[in-house]
Design brief:
Layout (H helix, E strand, L loop, with lengths): L18 E2 L1 H8 L3 H10 L4 E4 L2 E5 H17 L10 H21 L8
Antiparallel strand pairs: 1-3, 2-3
Length: 113
């Protein structure tokens, strides 16, 4: 049985499951209960009940993601827009500070005397 660990690594290694539980599907799709079950009701996600457990197919999850990517590519309003110059400068300064902090943290310790 393949289980989801919460870090998007599967316990069985390279074998990806064919179906997942709603909790895992929500993590994969970055959505909440209401949106997930709305997609199930509308037929955008394939699911079935196995005993008392609802299972959602990975095929339908991948198809949902692919449709979102196609929609974003086709619609200029849904694509990322460049930041205004002032925000770009702040973002660049923050990134530079982060790089400097990481460089300081990755330096080897001084030799003991």
């Amino acid at each position: 049985m393949t289980l989801f660990t919460g870090k998007f690594t599967w316990l069985d290694g390279d074998i990806e499951p064919l179906v997942v539980r709603p909790k895992t599907a929500k993590k994969l799709l970055s959505c909440g209960d209401a949106r997930l079950y709305a997609w199930i009701r509308s037929g955008e996600l394939e699911s079935y009940i196995d005993g008392k457990a609802r299972m959602i197919t990975m095929r339908s999850i991948k198809a949902k993601i692919a449709r979102g990517i196609e929609l974003a590519a086709a619609s200029p309003n849904r694509q990322l827009k460049p930041l205004p110059p002032q925000q770009r400068q702040r973002a660049d300064a923050a990134a530079k500070q982060l790089e400097q902090a990481e460089a300081r943290d990755n330096q080897p310790p001084p030799p003991p005397y």
